[in-house]
Specification:
This protein has 279 residues and is of the alpha/beta class. The protein has 2 domains: 179 residues, Rossmann fold (3-Layer(aba) Sandwich), CATH 3.40.50; 83 residues, Orthogonal Bundle (Arc Repressor Mutant, subunit A), CATH 1.10.10. It is built from 10 helices and 10 strands. The protein has a 5-stranded parallel sheet with strand order 2-1-3-4-5. Strands 8-7-6-10-9 form a 5-stranded antiparallel sheet. The mean pLDDT is 89.
Length: 279
């Protein structure tokens, strides 16, 4: 079943040595959507330069990525291990530029640094040194998280993602507004008497959605769903149920079909209201 939802872009910012972590982030985001999106009316869309950028000329590559992707993202997840990436004109790397510009815009960023073991003869020591300097600068400006395995990263990120979506004003305000819009857009229940509500619910159960108003010498019947809803032939009782039928007609919940005023059928609006009524 379709539903309206707020869509938030989740930017994955990372150098090339954490491909597994990028996959984990996507998996966690998709898992969050599967569990929470329908109820929370919120959908997270993981994005990255490798999947959401397109060829373009006329500017530096990182500037193009910033314009095509970064400026449109709402939450950024940054991950590092042994590399910081290739330097840009103004920043230590493209990944760092994405993080710094995102933080400057006032939107939330979540940073993770891997402490997984690595053979030192396989790493670029200059990259390690520059990464260490960036990590130290982050320590002075906020909170980041370390992890020692892929399973540890997945567990921590899933927990942190839920906390972020539950607590950060960006997501709370958007969720509250969506819930308010959905609530306000619901069809209001018309003011109906108890008899009218019962008659409408019974007609909803009738295979043809039909109500018969039958007058005869011995009294009056209002029949639907194989039964007469009038409990007795007292005129006062009959009048209450005739008024109920009139209410449904005036409200557009049933439509008169017979020229003698004996046959009525549920309208589409009538079915919708009947589904909403709880007796």
């Amino acid at each position: 079943m379709s539903y309206c939802a707020n869509v938030f872009n989740v930017m994955i910012a990372s150098p090339g040595d954490v491909a597994s972590e990028r996959s984990i982030i996507r998996d966690v985001v998709y898992e969050w959507n599967a569990v929470h999106s329908s109820q929370r009316k919120t959908v997270l869309l993981p994005i990255g330069w490798e999947s959401h950028s397109s060829p373009e000329m006329g500017a530096a590559p990182q500037s193009i990525i910033n314009n095509q992707i970064l400026e449109k993202c709402d939450l950024l997840v940054g991950v590092f291990w042994t590399r910081i990436g290739t330097a840009t004109d103004d920043f230590a790397s493209g990944t760092v530029e994405e993080i710094e510009k995102h933080v400057e815009s006032g939107k939330p960023a979540m940073l993770y640094f891997s402490s997984q073991p690595v053979a030192m003869d396989t790493v670029d020591l200059e990259q390690v040194a520059r990464l260490r300097a960036f990590k130290e600068s982050c320590r002075k400006r906020g909170l980041y998280e370390s992890y020692d395995s892929h399973s540890d990263f997945k567990e921590k990120f899933y927990r942190h993602l839920q906390l972020k979506l539950n607590q950060h004003p960006l997501f709370k305000v958007a969720e509250d507004e969506m819930i308010s819009e959905v609530t306000e857009s619901k069809t209001p229940l018309p003011n109906l008497s108890g008899e009218a509500r019962v008659l409408l619910k019974e007609a909803r159960q009738d295979p043809h959605g039909t109500i018969l108003h039958v007058r005869y010498i011995g009294g009056t019947d209002i029949q639907t769903n194989g039964k007469n809803v009038i409990p007795s032939n007292e005129r006062r009782e009959i009048a209450k149920w005739e008024q109920a039928l009139e209410e449904l007609t005036v409200q557009g919940l049933v439509v008169a079909r017979g020229h003698k005023g004996e046959v009525f059928e549920l309208s589409n609006f009538g079915y919708q209201i009947a589904d909403m009524i709880a007796l």
